Amino acid sequence: MNKAIGKVTMVCVCLALPLMGALRDAGAQGGAVMTYPRSGQSQDQHDRDRMECSQSAIDSTAFDPLFEAQWLARSQGQLHSSVTSPAPDASGPGAVGGAAIGATMGAIVGGISGDAGRGARIGATSGGLLGAGRRGNRRQEQAQWERKQAAQRRDESQQLQAQFDAGMANYERAFTVCMRARDYEAL
Questions:
Q1: 130 Cα distance to chain centroid
Q2: Where would you tag: which of 6, 152, 164, 177 has the fewest CB atoms within 10 A of its CB?
Q3: Phi, psi angle pair for 115, to nearest 5°
Q4: Crossing angle of helices 65-81/2-28, nearest 10°?
């Protein structure tokens, strides 16, 4: 039984390896550059030339499309989950806390003037209004901060994408020159 499983596994691996190589080659060797033999080169020769020209383009541009694409994806994923500056403090007394603070202060002032109850009511009302106003401002600050963070992440992501695109364009140019030198049509 174990021998049969081992043989089946070996057959599956042997069949999958060329497919995995073909998938990698499609992404790395020339990127989006299509090449066609001009002088009747065989498919094996075409594949060898694409692989050699891909390596030549990587060596001359220091840009490996597979590595760089994986790096770009990881970097952009990290950008979307990162925060570059702390959020503004959204805590504070709010309306209820402001009313309590206002009532206390009003009672003290009212006690001095002879009517602590009236001073507490006035203090509670004004403190509640001020606390509610501050809470609203804090929410606006929080929303503004979140918009700023999103814009900053978007800008950084666009910069990374532009760097990748420039590297890819250089790589494809070098790959195309190499393939044309080997008598292929490169589009």
A1: 40
A2: 6
A3: -135, 85
A4: 90
